[in-house]
Structure prediction request, 245 residues.
Amino acid sequence: MGTSVTLSRRPDLAAATYAIPYPPGSPRFMEGSLASLLVRGRRVARRWPHLVVALLQDDRPVARGVMVPFRGREPFPARGWDEVAVWAAEDALDDVTPDTAGALEIAVHPEHQGRGHSATVLRAMREAVAAAGLTSLVIPVRPPDKADVPATPMADYAAVTRPDGLPADRWLRTHVRAGGRIEAIAPCSATVQAPLADWRRWTGLPFDRDGVVTVPGALAPVFVSTAQDFAVYVEPNVWVSHRVA
Prediction:
């Protein structure tokens, strides 16, 4: 299954860890998230290397787990991913002592999918959180298969289970099998607002009509105004908590 290390132990692996690509077809439009600029890879690797986990095979990163620390405010806020990014940046600027780790992403190299690496990374993330002296790990989970049914509310989607009681969604199921607990829905977890030219560049779609547009890879519809020359995407996620090792 490989060996897991944090970048605090292996700072020489930072570039290779962040070079792990997303799967083919991953939505480009998420690069328009302003909140993500606060927690870009280089910043996180420099400031919180103890919360960036790399899974190694033959001493090469094949998967990563990225977290940021913050002081918990309200539990499981509606603005999930964006709130985690902002809280982490605020607390770093204000020298606030954190008590919680929020996961920003888990990524497995496309050539190493289907080998249980996600569960291994999750376990290593819990261990890193405990070693950092933090008391909880929370994750605004982005289930990519939700893009197949963008009009379905996330609450309805996440509630669907198999006969064995596990979530029907494969990514939520991975978290539950790894000991995670589904806690709440983050209905406006990540927001992208941008001029229509950007959306055309990201998606290859014309964006030439008002209203709702279905974009490949989006978990929810994109709202378009041609008169105002912008489109807004509000992505729902699912809050999952994990026991700290």
